[in-house]
Design brief:
CATH class of the largest domain: Alpha Beta
Number of helices: 9
Helix content: 25-40%
InterPro entries: Papain-like_cys_pep_sf, Pept_asp_AS, Peptidase_C1A, Peptidase_C1A_C, Peptidase_C1A_papain-like, Prot_inhib_I29
Distance between the termini: 77 Å
Largest sheet: 9 strands, mixed
Radius of gyration: 22 Å
Pfam family, one: Inhibitor_I29
Strand content: 15-25%
Domain Cathepsin propeptide inhibitor: 24-84
Oligomer: single chain
GO molecular function: cysteine-type peptidase activity
Organism: Panagrellus redivivus
Length: 326
Amino acid sequence: MHTLFWIAVFASVGCAAVALTEQWEKFKKTHEKNYPHPGTDAYHYAIFQRSLKEVNEHNAKYEAGEVTYSIKLIHLSDIPDDQWPQLPSLPISDNFVEHDISEDVEKEAIPEAIDWREKGYVTHVKDQGTNCGDSYIFAAVASLEAFNKRANGELVSLSEQNIRECYQNSTSVCNGQSPSNVIGFIVRNQSSLVDPEDTYPFNQTFGQCKFNKTGAVNTHVQGHKFFVGEDKLKEVVGTVGPVTVIIHSSPAFQSAHNGVFYDPTCKKSDKFDHAVLVVGYGTELGQDYWIIKNSWGTAWGDGGYLKMARNRDGNCHIGDWNIYPI
């Protein structure tokens, strides 16, 4: 009997080891990882196992109601934490003057919940890649796509590559800028025109500016409005449309999956380092949330989107810096 018991134990351990190895191979294939040297592969495999354990333990707490969100493995899950790429700080000026939003939001009652995806104002989730810190371009263009829908009645996916290659040199573009600068550039330098994505597609590299005003979309944008605060953010998102916001991308944010994301480690002193688009808000099981669209592809979050905690003191800077096109 004891012999049969230990045979069963060893068989179980062996099956678990095989399953773990299969997960590792699947992870490498999914994220296009290749470690030809056995020692290098073993090194990253050990980190992967630790990450998988952390995911399973965190998600067990999520299922038990001890935390508000789940997490998942990401492309960095086999890399030491201290070697994760650092996002560049996005410049937040101390002398920004808030604009008056009252004339834009007083026309309609503010709904308790809204999702602009359901109204046809949001294009597909895009992927900025890992080689350039230009989330501010993707978030600004995303808000402009919604503005163009409101102005022209048609949802068109606009070209981030148009801005990437025509705005400034690649070094300046990738080191972080303000989304407001992007709107200003489009107004001043391109007469409110932006090429559609299908004629000027995204490319990880940078080439010469190929802006073609003949086939470009006239968004009719004239500028932007800047404001702060979650209460005002609800007013604008609820009555005007999606809003570009700058947040702090904590390690937990980068691996977040489902539920309502709230990171207690985020502090007011954390840097602003990532721009996203708020496309709606609501309440789930008593938890208020924002719906954000990211630019890290559909593998991130919940199909490229995430619910972030709302009315929790601007967790991870949500609501602390907001703009929308006018």
